[in-house]
Amino acid sequence: MPGITREEVAHLARLSRLELQAEELDHFAEQLDVIIGAVARVSEVAGQDVPPTSHPLPLTNVMRADEVRPSLTPEQALSGAPASEEQRFRVPQILGED
Amino acid sequence: MTELIKYTAAQTAAAVAAGEVSAVEVAQAHLDRIEAVDKKVNAFLHVDTEGALKAARAVDDRRARGEELGPLAGVPLALKDVFTTEGVPTTCGSKILEGWIPPYDATLTARLKDAGVVILGKTNMDEFAMGSSTENSAYGPTGNPWDLARIPGGSGGGSAAALAAYEAPLAIGTDTGGSIRQPGAVTGTVGVKPTYGSVSRFGLVAFSSSLDQGGPCARTVLDAALLHEAIAGHDPLDSTSIDAPVPAVVEAARMRDIRGMRIGVVKEFAGEGYQAGVMQRFNESVELLRELGAEVVEVSCPSFTLALPAYYLIAPSEASSNLARFDAMRYGLRVGDDGSRSAEEVTALTREAGFGPEVKRRIMLGTYALSSGYYDAYYGSAQKVRTLISRDFDAAFAGVDVLVSPTTPTTAFPIGERADDPMAMYLADLCTIPSNLAGNAAMSLPCGLAPEDNLPVGLQIIAPAMADDRLYRVGGAVEAALNEKWGHPLLEEAPAL
């Protein structure tokens, strides 16, 4: 397995929405390289004909009755919001200018 | 006062029910103890004095009215700060949730309240339950009451330390890779990871959803069983909750008879990296199991050697997805929203400021393992390993009732020793991870002090899924025999704080 480069870590940080500092990039690149080197051992089983397990319980969809039930009030739901307005979460600009 | 804080949960509930002591007196004694020692221990992130006394008064009122009290009514408890509590701060040990006050109770929280349990406060933990030492908390490390310069384990170090420091007779933890059992082992307390799906995850802030499991922490096996029965059972609000009766764990804890049980010693949990004193106490425990009438055999689970690497792909992968919810939009911290930045920029600045290094490492590791080109080799292979581990367990449990091993390869290490060496830290969970991957049940209980450092050693017992009662049957018998041999519970040997 190939190691991980500083550029790849910068890319992962962007995908992960983490605005990392330059020194963090260096440090994480070094550590992630070691961790990935150690966990890559799982690929020993890559070629084996074994079904994957994603979850310990053999569950399929779990449904509930479609009934109106008590829930949080708008005030409760917004109580932790960094900013709110007219019973809505107020967020920074999502779309670009053009 | 000294007496009350040393009561077991069972003794406390009986004394409250009999009117020998009021629930308010019990709560106050523990609040006083927290006041006296927690500056040193740092087990609690938030102490809810008012809420605790109010809950205690409610129990006393119910008793005064002649109402029947449950088996844990009036017993104080320390709740890991990863379960939501209505009106009481919940931080998960993270700056990103500093000051957040949930508008709802987790199902587990609600069940504790219904049982008349008195919640004293919220305990310290590795940020979002990622860690094995509680050093990853944004609010400073917790000290191990056996030696405050050492780690109390993690991620539930606060809950385990609160028990060992007599700040509470009961605590709640969550176990994703060992976060209940490993802190139990290194603090000389009892910790149980119930079968996956048997304790509701509704209101448990998610780290790795296919592995996370809440469970009981206590100073005795019976107390853990009483708490287990109070919190377990089907919850329609958790779609992964098992709809089946809870095994009779309290009855099993009281049996104290393991004659005829078949017990397997896992061959792979020994060798390089295992401290000599840990192995010595473990081997003595195996001998004790024989003396108590169990049939002990060695079993091999060859895939367990791949459990640690598989876990450190699966758990970070799920975490990278789960922690995407911390986007600075609906709750928690928001940084850099000065009107000039986009939502995406604000999210990235907030996560940079709000998450600590281990959380960032795991989010990036998970993002890497799930990215195209690496998915099959990493995440896909890890899922195959998970199947192989379940098969190893199935094969082993075809011949034995439970498996045993040391809970952790070493005793508590000094704070700071592994803080910037993630791989060394991850080894603390070597023996506990397979049960999370397979979703079965496991317990750690104290089995002595390692001769070289006089620190607690944990014995791990593993049972098949939904056979949690076997943990308590074996644990109860071992605990009784060891207490008789020592003349007192192990925790009595801990230094005074």
From TrEMBL, chain A:
Which NCBIfam families does the record match to this protein? gatC (TIGR00135)
Q: Which family does it belong to?
A: Belongs to the GatC family.
Q: Which gene encodes it?
A: gatC
Q: Give the residue ranges for region: Disordered.
A: 70-98
Catalytic activity from the UniProt record = L-glutamyl-tRNA(Gln) + L-glutamine + ATP + H2O = L-glutaminyl-tRNA(Gln) + L-glutamate + ADP + phosphate + H(+); L-aspartyl-tRNA(Asn) + L-glutamine + ATP + H2O = L-asparaginyl-tRNA(Asn) + L-glutamate + ADP + phosphate + 2 H(+)
Quote the subunit structure annotation: Heterotrimer of A, B and C subunits.
> What organism is recorded for this protein?
Kitasatospora arboriphila
Gene3D superfamilies tied to this protein: Glu-tRNAGln amidotransferase C subunit, N-terminal domain
Which keywords does this chain's UniProt record carry?
ATP-binding, Ligase, Nucleotide-binding, Protein biosynthesis
* HAMAP family linked to this entry: GatC
What EC number(s) does this enzyme carry? 6.3.5.-
Purpose of the protein? Allows the formation of correctly charged Asn-tRNA(Asn) or Gln-tRNA(Gln) through the transamidation of misacylated Asp-tRNA(Asn) or Glu-tRNA(Gln) in organisms which lack either or both of asparaginyl-tRNA or glutaminyl-tRNA synthetases. The reaction takes place in the presence of glutamine and ATP through an activated phospho-Asp-tRNA(Asn) or phospho-Glu-tRNA(Gln).
Report the Pfam families cross-referenced here: GatC
Q: What is the protein's name according to its record?
A: Aspartyl/glutamyl-tRNA(Asn/Gln) amidotransferase subunit C
Question: What is this organism's lineage?
Answer: Bacteria, Bacillati, Actinomycetota, Actinomycetes, Kitasatosporales
Top-level EC class as recorded in UniProt:
ligase
Q: Does the keyword Acyltransferase apply?
A: no
Q: Does the keyword Cell membrane apply?
A: no
